[in-house]
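Handout, page 2. Input:
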Amino acid sequence: MAGRRIAAVRTSTLLRELTVMILDEGFLDVSMADVARRLKCSKASLYGIAASKEQLLLTVVRAFFRDATERVEASLAAATGPMDRIGVYLGAISVELAPASPQFFADVDAFAPAREVYRDNTRAAARRVQELVAAAAPAADATFVGAVAGQVMESIHRGDMRATTGLDDSAAYRSLAELIVAGLSGQHDRRPVGG
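Output:
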């Protein structure tokens, strides 16, 4: 029993260390031998986590987004006002994405299974924004705001936002939060466009 606990702790430690490495440097150009050498473990230890390099990388990407989602939701739970919750939510996403390098995001986009994990998380985040908008501003078109947020998030994911604005993913999420909150905060003064 103690041996299993020690193995679980070692696995958890390896995944944390591997996540830090991958967020910083990406993963497509790293071999299992390089990972084992850098993490000071055997390749067998890595293959004990996943059966192939691709599966190991996918495990890390899934764990990163799962853990980030948990921390984002914990931040959201601490927020008080409904409008504040939108800014806190997108701001927390910004904080969670900040350690990820451009190479990490390029590699996620180039590796179809990892790209799908990111897209699934982006879709879930857009739905969450829609829920938060509906709670904060019932008169606003939450479906539209959520859809726009989703499109911007997809643009961030594809790298279009970085190419157009120079903002990294983290800064782009922060700017999206500011835009949505500012737009909804001013909605009581809203006049029809062209009116």
